Amino acid sequence: MSSRTVLIFCAFFVSVLGARYDPTWDSIDSRPLPAWYDEAKLGIFIHWGVFAVPSINSEWFWERWQGSRTPEVVNFMKNNYRPDFTYADFAPQFTAEFFDANQWANMFNASGAEYIVFVSKHHEGYTNWPSNHSFNWNSMAVGPKRDIVGELAAAIKTNTSIHFGVYHSLFEWFHPLYLQDKENNFSTQNFVIDKTMPELYELVNTYKPDVIWSDGDWEATSDYWQSKEFLSWLYTDSPVKDTVVTNDRWGKDSTCKHGGFFTCQDRYQPGKLQSRKWENAMTIDRRSWGYRRNAQLSDYLSTEELLSTFIETVSFGGNMLMNVGPTKEGTIHPLFEERLRDVGSWLNVNGEAIRSSRPWTSQNDTLTPHVWYTMRNSDVYAILLDWPTGSTLSLGAPMTQTGTTVQLLGYSGNFKWTARSGKGIDITIPPISASSIPCKWAWTLKLSGLANIY
């Protein structure tokens, strides 16, 4: 066999087997992020669990009742429940009788999101699938008596092109094995060996998610959690090794340093370009990730606020993961649904400036406030959060040349323009009737043929 034949054979062998990743951060961090995730830009987070039954304060209800003892929660339980009532007594009331996975899938599809992250298990330890490692504290044993993760995964994969993902909490507030490991200063790993890691392997092998969104890591290191061993397997040998993406919450030594994309902290908005792909995980309800029955209208972000956050996030190279919290019955509140559909209707007009875009040399304009830039191929997009008040819009960042064109996405024809002295452009805004304006919020100008594309 010639040396050339050997090289060809070796190349084929490597391509068939794929890259292998060792259980070290250097190796794990070298894995390229699958392209679909950066191109997607918008995901939907869904926080659902037993905490949807009391549905006040937040998804941290149990901890704030019997851990940190938040007065609002303690008084709620004292005034409304018998003295011997336990958190486990809420589980039979987690009925999910109106949960329709196909309806949810259609709603998420209408939002324009290209991936979802469903909470398979929060810090309360209750699993939304019939886990073999959560005896009598899962959605098949008590409560809905259904495989929630399985139903939603099937609906998403069958009826949409959305990527299905799961959130999983590494720790559980009151699990005795975890508390024992913690008492031992994490020198023992009984909880990880018997509970956390078996659940993660079970989730991946059973439901084949394209996102593993880890959380609950902050009290111990990635060595305790055996995170590097899991990620090595996930990227090298798992059934989703070529498509799966992960976040950075794999230990207190990992967050914002290692893993896949960075989340760093909830509602992360760094305000500048980052060297690593990042995600802004945020909530429509300003105060909670889970559903709250006592939420006020002012607690919810408006469509304008959501789009402003989304556009800024994408301009700086991030993705936005927008959270909703379903009710215990399995419905998604009409206000949440309205926000999702509003974002979807906006993307129907302006998605060209968002999906598969990348940051431009300028993120926001130097002359006019509330203008954010993205770039796709050789076109630059100026997204205006405010409609121009006069007949001329002046932008300081773009440099024009002969052949530059300006269009409003969703509106036919080109806008007239003149070059500003030195740098910038003055764009003539024609009178547009209310019936002809392409969307209700945040309008996008497509700038083609600029001199300063890069």
Order of helices and strands: HHHEHHHEHEHHEHHEEHEHEEEEEEE
The fraction of residues assigned to DSSP E strands is: 15-25%
Q: Which percent bin holds the helix content? A: 25-40%
Question: What's the gyration radius in Å?
Answer: 24 Å
What oligomeric state is this?
single chain
Number of helices: 13
Mean pLDDT: 95
Structural class comes to: alpha/beta
User: Which strand order spans the largest sheet, edge to edge or round the barrel?
Assistant: 5-4-3-2-1-7-6
Please give the alpha-carbon distance between the first and last residues.
48 Å
- Number of distinct beta strands: 14
Uncertain runs are 1-16
Mass-distribution shape: globular
Largest sheet: 7 strands, parallel
What would your notes on this structure say?
With 454 residues, the chain is of the alpha/beta class. Helices cover 30% and strands 16% of the residues. The chain contains 13 helices and 14 strands. The protein has helices at residues 3-17, 25-29, 35-40, 61-66, 71-80, 101-110, 148-159, 176-183, 190-207, 222-225, 227-236, 303-315, 334-350; strands spanning 42-46, 115-121, 163-169, 211-215, 245-246, 278-283, 318-324, 371-376, 379-384, 392-395, 405-408, 417-419, 425-428, 443-448. A seven-stranded parallel sheet has the order 5-4-3-2-1-7-6. Strands 8-9-14-11 form a four-stranded antiparallel sheet. Strands 10-13-12 form a three-stranded antiparallel sheet, with no helix packed on it. α12 links the parallel β6 and β7. α6 (101-110) crosses α7 (148-159) and α6 packs across α13 (334-350). The longest helix has 18 residues, at 190-207. It is globular and about 75 Å long.
